[in-house]
Design the sequence.
């Protein structure tokens, strides 16, 4: 279950995007799950994360995971 999962600043690829306020892409999704006991990260092959800003204030992030690559 990924819904509602919280990530700390600097924790994995999503945490990196949060701390730098910059999107990251084509990253190994295992990085996002290295700080938890969830083995689900091995089911994915690629990911992208985009920090969400409102009035120059960080309000969250959206991370998308893919289990297959396009041909």
Sequence:
């Amino acid at each position: 279950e990924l819904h509602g999962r919280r990530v700390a600043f600097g924790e994995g690829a999503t945490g990196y995007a949060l701390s730098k306020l910059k999107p990251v892409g084509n990253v190994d999704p295992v990085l996002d799950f290295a700080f938890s006991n969830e083995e689900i990260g091995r089911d994915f092959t690629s990911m992208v994360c985009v920090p969400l800003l409102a009035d120059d204030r960080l309000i969250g992030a959206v991370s998308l995971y893919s289990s297959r690559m396009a041909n």
About this structure: The chain has a mean pLDDT of 86.
